[in-house]
Amino acid sequence: MLVPIANTPRDYDWGSTTLLADLEGRRPSGRPEAEIWFGDHEGSPAIVPDGRSLGAWITSEGAGSGAPPRLPYLLKLLAAASPLSIQAHPSKSQAIEGYAREEAAGVPRDAADRTYRDDNHKPELIVAISDTFTALAGLREIDATRRLVAELGPAGNGLATRLEDTDAAAALRNTISWLLSGEAQRDVDGIIAAAAEADSTEFSVELSLIGRLAAAYPGDPGVVVAMLMNLVTLTRGEGVFVPAGVLHAYLEGLGVELMAASDNVLRGGLTPKHIDVGELLRVLDSTPGPAPVVRPEDVGGGISRYPTDISDFALLRVTVEPHRPSWLSLAGVTIAVATEGRVEVRTHRSGDGIELTPGRAVFVTPDEMELHFSGSGQVFVAQPGATTAAPAS
After folding, report:
1. Alpha helices, DSSP H only, in the chain?
2. Which residues are bridge partners to 327 per DSSP?
3. What are phi and psi of 146, to 5 degrees?
4. N or C: which end of the chain has fewer CB within 10 A?
């Protein structure tokens, strides 16, 4: 069965006033539109045509089709005009322990200083559907960061000293702890000021970003934490996969985001919201390395997949050309959202059909084993993970 789903954009301050409206071909609302959620997460559940939430529909109508009581993933359209907070997410075991700890302590689940809203992990993948999408993802190789800090002159001496440890992961962890402790504010202010004056060929783009972040978040230690991170510009169709513990912040652009169904966020700057430094450091993976960029793997028939090896979700991209339909074998409960063109989606078993245009989405019950795509355009398909995507035979 195919069930159309829709939702109202979330109006977070960092959201774009134009990107989602332009995608959907409608007039902008005049307000920030940051995310559209396609799933049953209680924070903003999708709505089916009769007005019920997707979760309520699954409970009353979808159970007979094999739909799980809760979806293991959440699919979103994300439109950023300004930076999101620097953040990391816990592993499954960390989430279980942290959630139980806060429950036992009686911390209200909606409290501003609550860290664990549920007991699940939150690995996530975002794929650019605008021409470019900029993000901070992972901690840069430490030798490169040392070169960047050297460009700051004497103002960077305190930072440089903490990065001298031969154990790169320990050096970065200790540096982040120092920056967020509140004891480094004078150094933070000096580093930000020096970055505004620095002239570097190698790091001109990074220094320009630091200036923009400092203007948006004056005096925020997260501005200097950002200096330790990989700055990456994705082109259309490229993605970033963020597993547990990896620091990241999305900066600007329009993307399709898929994550495990969780709302557990450990913040590390660029936000007025609660920052639990100790808990962030507990979950942080401070191993430096290149940005975790993911590129689609072609599996034939106009279908490509984004490799993540996560059991909660898998993301596929279906590119449909005129007179060249595509068939996709399904592997469980599925949600599809169009990002280009006009694509007719039809099931093999029930024969249900729906036309998807950019921004429109559909829920596919697990008793459907194949989808047929025709027309012209692009559709992203979310399914449970650890599956091998393939065109239907």
Report:
1. 19-24, 54-57, 92-104, 142-150, 157-162, 168-180, 185-197, 204-216, 222-226, 277-283
2. 372
3. -60, -40
4. C
Give the pLDDT mean for 108-123: 93
Give me Rg for the CA atoms of the chain: 22
Residue 233, classed as helix, strand or coil, is strand
Length of the chain measured in residues: 393
Per-residue CA distances from 249 to 79, 150, 225, 269, 304 (Å): 13, 24, 11, 10, 26
| Token pair of 81 as six digits | 């005009």
323: left (phi over 0), alpha (psi -120 to 50) or beta: left
Percent of the chain with pLDDT over 70: 98
Task: Tell me the DSSP string of 332-366.
Answer: SSEEEEEEEEEEEEEESSS--EEEE-TT-EEEE-T
- Residue 35: phi and psi, rounded to 5, are -145, 145
Convert the pLDDT of each residue in 130-171 to its tens digit.
999 999 999 999 999 999 999 999 999 999 999 999 999 999
- For residue 70, what are the contacts with CB-CB under 8 A and spacing of at least 6? 40, 55, 261
